[in-house]
Each structure stands twice: as C-alpha cells, then as structure tokens.
Amino acid sequence: MRIKDHIKDKIVEITLLLGFGILAGFLLIVFQVTPTLIYLLGILYVLVLLSLFTYEYLRRTFFYRTFLNALEQLDKKYLAFELMPKPKFYDGKILYQALYEASKAMNEYVRLYEKNTIDFKEYIELWVHEIKIPLSTCILMMHNHPELKKLAPEIRRIEEDIDQVLYYARSNATEKDYLIKKTSLEDVVNTVIRKHKENILLRNIQIEIQNVDVEVFSDAKWLDFMLGQILSNSIKYSKEKDAKICLSTINHKDDTTLVIEDNGIGIKPSDLPRIFDKSFTGENGRIGASSTGMGLYLCKKLASKLGLKIEAQSKEGEYTKIYIHFPKEEFYQGTRD
C-alpha cells in the first residue's frame, strides 16, 4: 500500500480534521478562551470523529455485505469477481484487483481443464470403439470353435468393463447423448438377456420374464446398459444350484416399475444402503474379488439423468430385488419441466 494513495483515499477525512483544528486554533487565539468553549470544541471534535468513523464503517459494510450476499447465491464461487461491485475506497480496490487476478487465473485453469477433459473423453471413446474390433473377432472365433466357449464368461466380462469405461466417460454429459421416447421394455430386456446368454447357460440359471410387454419413457441405449449391469450382478452372485432370475413389471398409477429379482446370495443389511455409492464393493465384492463397485453407481447416476428412480431390496442368503421406476407420460413431463 503506497502512502500517497492512502492519503488520497482519506483526503476528505484529513481535510475535515485539519479544517476543524485550524478553526479551533483560530477561535482559541482570537477570542477569549473559556472552559465552556474548550468543552464545546472537544464535544464537536468527538462528533466529527464519530461521523467519519460511521461513514467509513457504513460504506465498507454496505460493500462487503452486498458482495457476500451475491457470493452466497453463486454455485461456482470462482466467478465471484464477476458479481463484485467496484469499491471506491483504497483497501477495497486492492481486494478488487487481487480477486481480478485470481479470477483470471482460475478461468484460464478451468478452460484448460475442460479442454483436457474433452480430449480425454474423446480418446476414451475412440479407444473403446477400436478395442471392440479385436474383441468382436474373438467372439466370432469363439462361436466358430466350440472348444473355446469356456472363454465366454471372460469375454463377456471384458465387454462389460469396456462398456463401463465408455458410459462413465459419457455420464457427465448424458443430455447430449440420449433421446427419451417411448421404448419397448420387452425389446430391451430380450436384447440384454441375449448378450448374457453364454453366462446364463454356463451357470444354468433359469430366466423368467413376466409382463414386460409395455412401453416406457427412456433411452433404449442407456437403459440397455443399466439392465446389463444389474443382470450381470445377478448372474455373478447367483447360487450354485437352482439359480433363478425373474424380470417383471408392476403397474402403478404414476409409474411402471421394472423388478429384477434373483434368488442369489443377497446383500448384507449393513451394505445395502451403500450399494449405489461410487467404488463401493461391499462384502460380496471382496469375496468375489472381481467387483469394481462402478456398475450400480453408474446405474444410479444415469437413472437420475433420465428422470428415473432406482432402488434395491435384499435379504442376505435369500434374494435381491432391484426396482427401476419409469414415470408415466403425464408424470414424466411434470418431473422434466
């Protein structure tokens, strides 16, 4: 802080104080000094000081209060400078300049971060599409050579992991990559089951499909991925004998609910509230040593983006049920508006 700038900022206060001092001195010298006059001059001097103090307090309080109220309502705090009124007092100008420099640097960093994120996302999507070419070749070879069919579960697992990478990369910008319309739930369910056919046959799992010949509002591609993740979990944690997975719907007044139920190993009560958390594997995931904890997390995230609701119910050692609620047309429009 330069002294001349500080003096310039305080010129009004300095002028008033000097003027009052000169006036008081003139009165004391020219006129007869009495105790009463000294007393009155003292009171007047104190009033001047209080007035100056109040003025400084009020203008700073108004400035900072206005700024903090605007900041509180701002989601992206690094844009605070854009809402900051330009102050007229010197120390406020210093803060204003400091925030300007910080905001400028942060905006440049954010732009660079967004560019790098977009570049990485585009690379991941390109990599996924490229890696699927040799993977498709492996699947074709497996079908042409029955002795290779025992590789089916591992091939399918690779496909699922690749899909997870792709959908995770896209999950923060689904609004640019989905089209919500009436979708045949039966078609999506059948497509997902066909994709997992080898694992279902290998584990000798009985599949039951009931009342899924309905239309729901969703994006077929994203719904396919979500059901694939859920079905994969049901297969992974199925029982060794008499395993069964049932897909059915329940018709409610305001939504259609798809239920994916299995009679597998179930979920511990302590783990159940956290199964949709990112990277949470739980007791079952640690036992199997093959869970990333990303599948159900992505399902929850995508369901929220699509205006759906997903929840789980389970009893350890007996069953697990996953519910996906699809709002009906009038209710869906209300939630999206």
Commentary on this structure:
This protein is α+β, with helices and mostly antiparallel strands. The chain has helices at residues 3-9, 11-30, 35-72, 80-83, 90-144, 152-170, 185-195, 197-202, 220-236, 282-288, 295-305, 329-336, and strands at 181-184, 206-210, 215-218, 244-251, 255-262, 309-315, 319-327. It has a five-stranded mixed β-sheet. A two-stranded antiparallel sheet has the order 1-3. Helix 5 (90-144) packs antiparallel against helix 6 (152-170). The longest helix has 55 residues, at 90-144. The chain starts with a helix and ends with a helix.
List keywords for this structure.
337 residues; 5-stranded mixed β-sheet; two-stranded antiparallel sheet
Strand content: 5-15%
Helix % is 55-70%
Overall number of strands = 7
Taking the alpha carbons of the first and last residues, their distance comes to: 53 Å
Secondary structure topology:
Layout (H helix, E strand, L loop, with lengths): L2 H7 L1 H20 L4 H38 L7 H4 L6 H55 L7 H19 L10 E4 H11 L1 H6 L3 E5 L4 E4 L1 H17 L7 E8 L3 E8 L19 H7 L6 H11 L3 E7 L3 E9 L1 H8 L1
Parallel strand pairs: 2-4
Antiparallel strand pairs: 1-3, 4-5, 5-7, 6-7
Helix pairs in contact: 2-3, 5-6, 7-9, 9-11
